[in-house]
Amino acid sequence: MKQFYFRLIKLLTGLFFCALGIAFTINARIGFSPWDVFHAGLASTLRISIGTASIATGILILLLIILLGEKVGLGTLLNMILIGMFLDLILNLRIIPVSNNFITGIIMLIIGMIIFSFATYLYIQSAFGAGPRDSLMVALSRKTGYPIGFCRGLIELIVALTGWKLGGMIGIGTVLFALLIGLFIQITFKIFKFDATKVKHETFENTIKQCFTTIREINKS
C-alpha cells in the first residue's frame, strides 16, 4: 500500500508541475503550445477559463479514446481534471509573472518546457495510465498505421490551427514548443536514466481491484 501512495504522490506532483510549466509558457506571451492555443481559443469563444476549457477538451477526448478501444487509467482521469484545475489556480493567484518583452518571453518558455519535461517524467513513472491527449495520439497511430511522431504532429497542427481560428495565440513560442519539447523530455529522461517504453501502465480497473485487495488484507490482519 505504501508503494501505491508513493506512486499516487508522484502522479499528483507531476500533474501539478505540468500545470506550472504550462502557466510559464502561457505567461511568456510569445505564443502558446499547440494544445493551449486550442484551449485558449475555446475559452475565448465560450467565455470560460482556460483551465475549464482544458477539462472540457479532455472529457471529449476521453470519450473518443474509449470508443477507439484505448484503456483508461487513474492517471488518465486525474490528468483530465487536475491539470485544468491547477492551471486556473496558478493563473488566478498570479504567482507567475507575465513577460513584457521577447527576451524574458523566451526565458519563461524555456523554464516552462523544463518544468513540463520533469512533470512528464514523474507522471509517466507513476504508471497510472497515459493522459487523454497522449492516448489519442496512440489510438490514431494504431488505427491508421502511421508513426507516432506523424500522428502527434498532425493532431497538434489541427488543434493549433483550430485554436487560432477561435482566437488562441500562435507565435514563435508555438513553433519552438512544438520543435523542442520532445528534445527537452528526452534529455530529462536521460538525466534520470528513465526508459518510458518499459513502463507498464495500470488500468483504472486494475487500480480499483488492487485497492480492494489491499483493504481486505488489512482487515484480515
General description of the model:
This protein has 221 residues and is an all-alpha fold. The protein has helices at 2-27, 34-46, 50-67, 74-93, 102-125, 132-144, 148-165, 172-191, 204-220. It is globular, with a radius of gyration of 18 Å.
Estimated share of beta-strand residues: under 5%
**Regions with pLDDT < 50 over 5+ consecutive residues?**
none
What's the average pLDDT?
Answer: 90
Q: Count of helical segments?
A: 9
Percent of residues in helices comes to over 70%
Q: Give the CA-CA distance, first to last residue.
A: 14 Å
Main sheet, how many strands, which sense, barrel? none
Morphology? globular
Radius of gyration: 18 Å
What order do the helices and strands follow?
A: HHHHHHHHH
Question: How many DSSP E strands?
Answer: 0
- Decide which structural class fits the backbone: mainly alpha
List descriptors.
mainly alpha
Secondary-structure blueprint of this entry?
Layout: H1 2-27, H2 34-46, H3 50-67, H4 74-93, H5 102-125, H6 132-144, H7 148-165, H8 172-191, H9 204-220
Task: Describe this structure in a few short sentences.
The chain is mostly helical and 221 residues long.
